[in-house]
């Protein structure tokens, strides 16, 4: 094998790569891929085995490349181990626990109040994580991806040194390099951050018990999900957010609805409050914040959860940075092909930080692998669904109403309440609404759902926007009855000023121009 055009490949692989996107067969023995220490030369090397990294590795292998992947901590990255997946397992437990306490409302009587064994809940979460991460590892091996468990250090765009877990080092050479380093929690620079009972989102996945009370610093997606979870498990929760609203990047009406919902369930929410310090006081943790009117206010809890977001993790990239890798505030700069300014070097996921969403990282991983192997692949960030797993769920896609109006042109936006949906009434899930935002020609500019199964339902609007369908085409599509999906059609009808199952005084009133 000899280097050709900067990559390690033989003539057969080169000809395969020049064809259409397709699965290809390889004639090299499996052992050559499965035993990492016997590999040192690759067509594609991926750093990081999170959602973006492992997908990139599998896609590159499907296209016939010899692929290696380096992971310093755990296969599946933050998402599968301490983020998306474990949090959803615990959120499911929390929601079930909360629902059990309200079964008497629908005629189901329990002999005793339900109780929670946190150790069993964590064990269930661990089982889910183990199954998924083990499955990813098997997929990598089945696709003959060489796995290196250790820490990567980039020496150049084509050379990476790996310090394996046993302390030995190995240098790898590659034609194309895909960076998928992921992210780490942001640690704000205020006193007391390293104190007792101060935790980050990663730590929240392994709590020994349910806190009696919890002060959550931050009001973004991670913060509201965990605040919702701990509240449902029985903690007294307080959210302290510096911005004027929680989930401030979402539609204003959605933010307001979530605020009302959490407040109704006993969550205290303080917005416009900048945290100054964390300290011990009266046997608890005390968070001191300065409010928007210049006053100081304190919030006490058994634990403090710091969930102000995450930041890109450029660890191990010093060699590329010395080579001129373009960076922006700690993030790697990549174009719509996911290519950096260094030839043959790609970056995806939280390291690029365009959306901070695992499903986007997965798509970026696929496209980076395809482009690295000579195919035309372009990432489109205009239609990205944004799920939030609160109770009820939230999901959005496209523009918010405010963004649509700032853009100019005619805008029609309207909501359809879940209380008017038959399935929602039958299941007792009537809180919230579905909102649709239309443009000049009935095109769907955006949508937001606050209610049952929102994170699944949003896909209909995502697909409609991707296919450039208009409101008329959504309305002309027969939706099954009785289902939650009917609310999507009804919201679109409402935005058109012709709602059937809610009363509208006139189309002009619905337009809200």
Walk me through what this model shows:
The protein is α/β, with parallel strands linked by helices and 513 residues long. Helices cover 32% and strands 26% of the residues. The chain has 16 helices and 25 strands. The strands form seven sheets. A five-stranded mixed beta barrel has the order 3-4-5-6-7. It has a five-stranded parallel sheet with strand order 9-16-10-11-12. α3 packs parallel to α10 and α5 packs parallel to α7. It is globular and about 65 Å long. The N terminus is likely disordered.
Key features?
513 residues; alpha/beta; 5-stranded mixed β-barrel; globular
Write the layout of secondary structure elements.
Layout: E1 2-4, E2 7-9, H1 11-17, H2 31-34, E3 41-47, H3 51-62, E4 67-71, H4 77-82, H5 84-100, H6 118-142, E5 146-156, E6 159-164, E7 169-179, E8 183-185, E9 198-200, E10 213-217, H7 221-233, E11 236-240, H8 252-264, E12 268-270, E13 273-281, E14 284-291, E15 296-301, E16 303-306, E17 310-312, H9 318-322, E18 327-328, E19 331-332, E20 345-347, H10 358-372, E21 386-388, E22 393-398, H11 401-407, E23 412-417, H12 422-427, E24 433-438, E25 444-451, H13 454-466, H14 471-476, H15 486-495, H16 507-511
Parallel strand pairs: 3-4, 3-7, 4-5, 7-20, 9-16, 10-11, 10-16, 11-12
Antiparallel strand pairs: 1-2, 5-6, 6-7, 8-17, 13-14, 14-15, 18-19, 21-22, 22-25, 23-24, 24-25
């Amino acid at each position: 094998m000899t280097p050709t055009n900067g990559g390690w490949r033989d003539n057969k692989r080169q000809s395969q790569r020049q064809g259409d996107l397709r699965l290809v067969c390889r004639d090299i023995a499996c052992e050559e891929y499965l035993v990492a220490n016997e590999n040192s030369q690759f067509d594609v090397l991926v750093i990081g085995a999170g959602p973006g990294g492992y997908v990139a590795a599998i896609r590159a292998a499907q296209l016939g490349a010899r692929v290696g992947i380096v992971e310093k901590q755990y296969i599946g990255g933050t998402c599968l181990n301490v983020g998306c997946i474990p949090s959803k397992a615990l959120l499911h437990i929390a929601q079930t626990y909360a629902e059990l306490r309200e079964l008497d409302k629908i005629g189901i009587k329990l002999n005793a109040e339900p109780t929670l064994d946190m150790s069993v809940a964590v064990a269930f979460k661990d089982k889910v994580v183990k199954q998924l991460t083990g499955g990813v590892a098997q997929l990598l091996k089945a696709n003959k991806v060489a796995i290196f468990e250790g820490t990567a250090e980039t020496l150049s765009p084509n050379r990476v040194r790996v310090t394996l877990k046993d302390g030995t080092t190995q240098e790898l050479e590659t034609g194309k390099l895909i960076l998928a380093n992921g992210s780490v929690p942001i640690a704000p620079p205020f006193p007391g951050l390293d104190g007792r009972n101060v935790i980050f989102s990663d730590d929240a996945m392994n709590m020994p018990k349910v806190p009696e009370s919890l002060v959550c610093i931050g009001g973004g997606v991670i913060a509201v999900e965990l605040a919702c979870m701990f509240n449902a498990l029985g903690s007294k929760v307080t959210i302290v957010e510096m911005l004027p609203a929680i989930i401030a990047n979402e539609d204003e009406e959605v933010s307001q609805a979530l605020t009302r919902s959490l407040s109704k369930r006993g969550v205290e929410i303080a917005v416009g409050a900048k945290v100054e310090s964390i300290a011990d006081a009266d046997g608890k943790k005390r968070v001191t914040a300065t409010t928007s009117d210049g006053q100081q206010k304190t919030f006490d809890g058994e634990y403090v959860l710091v969930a102000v977001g995450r930041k890109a993790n450029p660890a191990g990239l010093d060699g590329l940075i010395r080579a001129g890798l373009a960076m922006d505030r700690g993030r790697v700069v990549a174009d719509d092909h996911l290519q950096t300014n260094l030839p043959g070097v790609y970056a995806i996921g939280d390291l690029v930080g365009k959306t901070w969403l695992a499903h986007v990282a997965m798509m970026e991983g696929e496209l980076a692998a395809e482009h690295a192997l000579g195919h035309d692949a372009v990432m489109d960030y205009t239609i990205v669904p944004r799920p939030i797993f609160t109770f009820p769920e939230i999901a959005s896609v496209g523009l918010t109403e405010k963004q649509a109006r700032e853009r100019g042109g005619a805008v029609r936006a309207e909501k359809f309440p879940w209380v008017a949906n038959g399935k929602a009434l039958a299941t007792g899930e009537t809180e919230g609404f579905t909102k649709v935002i239309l443009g000049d020609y009935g095109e769907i500019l955006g949508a937001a759902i606050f209610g049952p199964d929102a994170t699944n339902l949003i896909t209909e609007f995502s697909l409609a926007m991707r296919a450039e369908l208009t409101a008329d085409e959504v309305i002309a599509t027969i939706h099954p009855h009785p289902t939650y999906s009917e609310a999507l059609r009804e919201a679109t009808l409402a935005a058109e000023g012709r709602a059937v199952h809610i009363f509208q005084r006139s189309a002009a009133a619905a337009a809200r121009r």
